Amino acid sequence: MTHIDDYATDTDNQWCPGCSNFKILKAFKKALVELKKSPDQMCLVSGIGQAAKFPHYLKCNFFNGLHGRPIPVAVGVQTANPDLTTIVVTGDGDCYGEGGNHFIHAIRRNPNITVVVHNNQIYALTKGQASPTTPYGEKRTLQMKGVDILPLNMPAIAIMHDCTFVARGYAQNVDHLKGLLIEAIQHPGLSYVDVIQPCITWGTRPVSWYKDRVKELGEDHDPGDKNAALAKAIDTESEFSIGILYQTEPRDLFGHHYRDKVTDGPLAELPSLPKNQLETMISEFMPGFGK
Ligand SMILES: Cc1ncc(C[n+]2csc(CCOP(=O)(O)OP(=O)(O)O)c2C)c(N)n1
Ligand code: SF4
Ligand SMILES: [Mg+2]
Q1: I need a surface site. Which of 157, 217, 244, 267 has the fewest CB within 10 A?
Q2: Pairing of strands 122-123, 42-46
Q3: Cα–ligand 1 centroid distance for 71 (angstroms)
Q4: 221 lies in the same domain as 159
Q5: Distance 21 CA to ligand 2 centre (A)
Q6: Is the same domain home to 15 and 149?
Q7: Closest by alpha carbon to 28, among 48, 45, 7?
């Protein structure tokens, strides 16, 4: 039995009072309670940024590493211990900018992790510079004449490349986001939730601007329909569709192909392997090893 207070930490929160990150934190905790996940069953992985401070405020195993690099760490954690529910908590700068390469290739690999992106369309921690999702023309602290390159639409890229679960949430809509997180965490394979997260300190649009544009996907949206999913992902001008944009049948999980030959539990619990078994394994990766 888990209670929402089981996830509380005593770390001082550094987010601005009223930041929508608090709402994401709340949605997360509610999802974990409903999933009956205790803190020791979870591992949060993050990089650097306001979003990446998240694991400081939710009690569980965590790894807070370099800017842009949470995905390779999470893939390693999940591969070494598939019993851990492994979740990357990241920002649009961390995941789509510095870590964009890792994310794109994770889509191809399909590790059994969940990636939750706090998308505030800026680098908030470093005081409001443009990120890969800042709209074209928007004036920012560094881009004083306006951003002169086009934004990146990562949900559309993920759908194009058959990421098996792609959703969009809205930070202010806690219960809806909680539902998406529950679905994402339960989905086998890479599940990805882009969360629209208004920044009240460096953002240029009021929260009401987002509220007017956020629209929940209706029953008529079929997440198995790739073209419909793409259309919803691409339209960020007139509205932000929130819900499960795209979901496919599960496919092979990265890492399991190799590790299933050894154990279905945590690698750390394995006894030391006999030398000849180790040599056989290594030679599968390095033909000619030891000759
Ligand atoms: C390798 C490296 N490059 C740049 C930085 C500076 N830096 C820290 S956080 C950040 C951007 C964070 O933006 P985002 O991931 O969107 O998080 P937010 O603060 O907006 O939640 C940058 C550029 C860094 N710490 N390390
Ligand atoms: S700068 Fe923006 S994203 Fe960062 S804590 Fe403050 S309101 Fe939240
Ligand atoms: Mg950001």
Answers
A1: 267
A2: unpaired
A3: 15
A4: yes
A5: 8
A6: yes
A7: 7
Of 142, 140, 141, 158, nearest to 96 by C-alpha is 158
Euclidean distance between CA atoms 203 and 209, whole angstroms = 11
More confident residue, 263 or 34: 34
Nearest ligand, measured from the Cα of 49: 1
**pLDDT bracket for residue 231 (50, 70, 90):** very high
Domain total in the chain: 2
Judge whether residue 261 has pLDDT over 80. Answer: no
What the block records as the tokens of 121 is 């369309």
> Residue 145 is part of a domain; what is its CATH number?
3.40.50.970
Continuous H helices in the chain: 21-34, 70-80, 92, 100-109, 154-160, 174-186, 207-213, 226-234, 256-259, 275-285
Q: How far from chain centre, in Å, is Cα 222? A: 22
Q: Whose CA is nearest to atom 2 of ligand 1?
A: 67
Range of the domain at 265: 261-291
In the three-class reduction of DSSP (H, G, I as helix; E, B as strand; rest coil), residue 197 is classed as coil
Residues 115 and 223 in one domain: yes
